[in-house]
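Narrative of activities, Objective 1.

The group set out to show that a structural description can be obtained from nothing but a protein's sequence at a throughput compatible with the screening campaign. Below is one input-output pair from the validation batch, recorded exactly as produced.
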Amino acid sequence: MKTIFLIGYMGCGKSTLGRGLAERCDIEFIDLDDHIEALTGKRIRDIFATDGEKFFREIEQRTLVEISSKENVLIACGGGTPCFGDNMNLMNSQGTTVLLETSHNRLFERLKQGRSKRPLIAGLDDRQLESFISEQLSARMPYYRKATATFDSSLLENETQIEQTCETFINRFMLPRKNI
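Output recorded for this entry:
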């Protein structure tokens, strides 16, 4: 099986869906941000704070090149990954890119709850967060729209929804199930 890249805006469910699929499928799962943290020994927010976004994007691109040629792997990319360098062309040439889509309101609620863990939005109040999401989505959508497929990731709020969404994804993309 070729590599599947989960892309989309932060909070759309790439990591949640990826982990859920990894539990159910005979496929390796790599969360790109977690992989970068393991390689560098630094948290993403610390890389942003000490070395800047440009440095992070260079590490991200090198890491993406390194892992993108693997087979039978599912990669959850960072929200900005498709928007820098030649990352979308690389991902599209190496496998299937799946844009996870959810409503603006759902993104806002998810990001509001977890904003302290995300360096780009940690210091924003609710009004600023709403505006930030709108502006970033508008700027990033031309890159996201280069994905080879889209998938609705609106229902990932509890275990039942995660189970149902994973089943739909597995069936649609014909992922190999684990032998239990």
